[in-house]
Write a structure and sequence with these properties.
By secondary structure, the chain is mostly helical. Helices cover 59% and strands 9% of the residues.
Length: 85
Amino acid sequence: MKDEKIDRLLRSAARAREETAATMPFGFDTRVVALWRATAQRTNGVTSLVRRVAVLSAAVIIISTPARRCVVGSGDYHIYNRCGP
């Protein structure tokens, strides 16, 4: 009995035709992005300025750290090491 049900299921699965995947209509993704941008909250100028200053500060720190390691000593007497090979 079980084998008959499994055989019947496999036969009907073999006869079934493959369905094509549904695709988005032309321009749908553009409309979704435009709607999302229109409803997004606008940040004020201060938030944008603070974010830019933070990113710029982080970049300056990252770039200047290797340069600081080339200078050894303190006060007026600095010994400049050759950084690199």
